[in-house]
Amino acid sequence: MQSVAPSSVAPNPNGVRRTLLIIGGAEDRIGRSVVLKRFVKLCGGRHARIAIIPTASLMSDTGSRYEELFDDARDGELARGEASTHYLYVEKSPGRIKTLIPDARLIAVLRNPVDRAFSSYQHLVRDDLEPLDFGAALDAEPQRIAEHYAYLYRYTDMGFYSQQLDRYEKTFPENQLCVLLYDDLRSDSEGACRRIFSFLGVDEDFVPDMSGEYNRSGVPKNRFMHRLLNPSAPMKRRLWNVTPRFARERLLDAQTKIVNRNLQRQTMPEPERDRLRGVFREEVGRLEARLDRDLSHWLA
Questions:
Q1: Which of 109, 148, 131, 128 is nearest to 21 (CA)?
Q2: Is residue 197 part of a domain?
């Protein structure tokens, strides 16, 4: 599903404006929003001063429903926002955001495009949505783009971050855009969180619990079990609907642990890795210059 921009930028009745948009990160691949839910939990759960609210739909009433998500802002909230990784990729997003939310704080998380491509592939394989081997899937990408396949199938095209960031830098002031590397989130999670908190103007000294792994990719060892726990499974939906709201987080944690234990990571075939190194070699060089970072390990 594609995210649709909000219809207005008026503050909600409590005076809290939409101040944060996560525009990149490839977080929510199949509708679980697990990383976003984890982020809210790390920031204090029900007592958090940051609310991340994802919304994605093509329904005609999206604008009004989007606005309603911000009507229950509580006193003391410093920032409230939502996330769609498609915002970074979709060409019209910067202009629309600028028109509707000109003072938005924007966060993009960039992952090695070679690894990101294979991760997207593994997630689609995991959920029975990719019948091709990786090499054939790369070959099929241009035709799939022409046939308007979902963005996740754009294994290489979504990895050209420079042109995507260009659109935002031409539209927004530098101080409204925070670009992070997935590498930093993995190697120095606390430092990356402090940078995010500083960017948002909230408490930088808060130390979140960084344990746990969410939205893991891989091939199910037991395909039946994975299908049973998939969010689209009828039994899963019924169980979720009858579970009290206060218990849903525990249910999600338990489900995630079971799903992760059932997944086996794949290794990218070396011919395809070499192929993607060639595809992204110049792009990595452009990012090194832009970010003033050594990214040579992305091509190793």
A1: 109
A2: yes
User: How many domains is the chain built from?
Assistant: 1
Instruction: Indicate whether 71 belongs to any domain.
Output: yes
Segments of the chain assigned E as strands: 20-24, 50-52, 79-83, 105-110, 177-181, 219-220, 263-264
pTM reported for the whole predicted model: 0.69
What CA–CA distances, in Å, run from 227 to 37, 73, 197, 199, 262?
A: 22, 36, 37, 39, 11
pLDDT digits (tens, 9 = 90+) for 172-201: 999 999 999 999 988 888 888 889 889 988
87 — phi, psi (to 5°)? -60, -35
The answer to the question of residue 143 being in a domain is no
AA identity, residue 134: F
Give per-residue pLDDT as tens, 118-164: 999 998 888 888 999 999 999 999 999 999 999 999 999 999 999 99
